From TrEMBL:
Gene Ontology biological-process annotations: steroid metabolic process
Organism classification: Eukaryota, Metazoa, Chordata, Craniata, Vertebrata
Transmembrane feature ranges: none
Taxonomic source organism: Eleutherodactylus coqui
PANTHER family attached to this UniProt entry: RETINOL DEHYDROGENASE 7, SHORT-CHAIN DEHYDROGENASE/REDUCTASE FAMILY 9C
Family assignment from sequence similarity: Belongs to the short-chain dehydrogenases/reductases (SDR) family.
The protein, known as: Retinol dehydrogenase 1
Keyword Signal: yes
Signal sequence range: 1-19
Molecular function in Gene Ontology: oxidoreductase activity
């Protein structure tokens, strides 16, 4: 009875603390990367409605114009390519001028890409670089260059990782980059606590956006499959590629939620709560499947993923053939 009461009491206290808000959003500047589409785009509009002064960074001029068209003076846009040092420097200069003596209140590192993604022996170094440069190296460079403004504003950093940063499946730079974001954010949080800068990590499950766009993923998988050597294609078997596409289509259709506000709500909490959380699992699949599975023993996760993913066909044959040759 005593234990039960204590648990309820602690839960109530935690809930109250978690629901406390900062007093005012007006005059607080938030800078968001990757606002052309998806989470970043929705967050920019949401924060703008909440009264924040939003500076939304878009990769393209087109994305920037479209976002500006549907908002007011309190939302400014800049063009930013996070893999380009000069582009980051320009954004920092612009934000420094806009924010003046106030400094920056929020930095949301949201820009990211998923492709190329596929079995590891289908990929070359360029494929890895393409993703790591945006999702990890770009995120680190943006963060480091904005830190002086964030310290000035006693600000907050919100980094978008993924459940795939906790549980790695599907080869390529994506899982590595998101695991790197987790690790970078943990060190950053511990280093910056002394300077009044808070750091939160968002771990979304699967959502319907640009990074889960089937057309883009399938087009890139065809590119990878078509350039494979006959040996590797033989080892996987012709059926494998078709099965891979089928599983991909089915899983994207059934797994991806179209309610992306589940993710932006977490980002908003990280920016508006008096005490932002360290980690946010966003979406039911993240909370009840992917994150728990990531804590399970590796053998459990391995079996689950083996059931879910297609199996290469020819591996045993090619191994047997090699053994005969020897
Ligand atoms: N959707 C999911 O299921 C999911 C799950 C976990 C984590 N995430 C993460 O959530 C973040 C937002 O993605 P999203 O789902 O909202 O997909 P999205 O609609 O594709 O948004 C990603 C944004 O990043 C931009 N971007 C790509 N390369 C860039 C670069 N070099 N510099 C600056 N911006 C760049 C994209 O621009 P373009 O549109 O012009 O390419 C796009 O606006 C990403 O970090 C992603 O990895 C997504
Ligand atoms: C972003 O910058 C990189 C490196 O400078 C470049 O290769 C890429 O094409 C740029 N992307 C866009 C959309 O401008």
């Amino acid at each position: 009875m005593g234990t039960m009461t204590s648990i309820v009491f602690l839960f109530v206290c935690w809930t109250i603390k978690d629901n406390l808000k900062i007093p005012d959003t007006r005059g607080k500047y938030v800078f968001i990367t990757g606002c052309d589409s998806g989470f970043g785009n929705l967050l920019a509009q949401r924060l703008h409605k909440k009264g924040f002064s939003v500076i939304a960074a878009c990769l393209t001029e087109k994305g920037s114009d479209e976002l500006k068209a549907c908002t007011s003076q309190n939302l400014k846009t800049v063009v930013l390519n996070v893999t380009n040092a000069e582009s980051i420097d320009n954004a920092v200069t612009y934000v420094a001028e806009e924010t003046g003596s106030k400094g920056l209140y929020g930095l949301v590192n949201n820009a990211g890409r998923a492709t190329p993604i596929g079995p590891t022996d289908w990929l070359d170094m360029e494929d890895f670089h393409k993703v790591l440069n945006v999702n990890l190296i770009g995120l680190i460079e943006v963060t480091i260059k904005f830190l002086p403004l964030l310290k000035k504003g006693s600000g907050r950093i919100v980094n978008v990782a993924s459940v795939m940063g906790r549980l790695a499946f599907g080869g390529g730079g994506y899982c590595l980059s998101k695991c790197g974001v987790e690790s970078f954010s943990d060190s950053l949080r511990r280093d910056m606590q002394h300077f009044g800068v808070k750091v939160s990590i968002i771990e979304p499950g699967f959502f319907k956006t640009g990074v889960t766009n089937l057309e883009i993923i399938e087009k890139d998988l065809h590119r990878l499959w078509n350039r494979l050597t006959p040996e590797i294609r033989y080892a996987y078997g012709d059926k494998y590629f078709d099965n891979y596409l089928k599983v991909q289509r089915l899983s994207m259709k059934t797994l991806c939620s179209s309610d992306i506000s589940k993710v932006t709500n977490c980002m908003e909490h990280a920016l508006t709560a008096r005490y932002p959380r360290t980690r946010y699992g966003a979406g039911w699949d993240a909370k009840f499947f992917w994150l728990p599975l990531s804590y399970a023993p590796a053998v459990v996760a391995d079996v689950m993923l083996k059931i879910m993913l297609p199996q290469p066909n020819g591996i045993k044959n090619s191994v047997a053939k090699n053994q005969v040759d020897v």
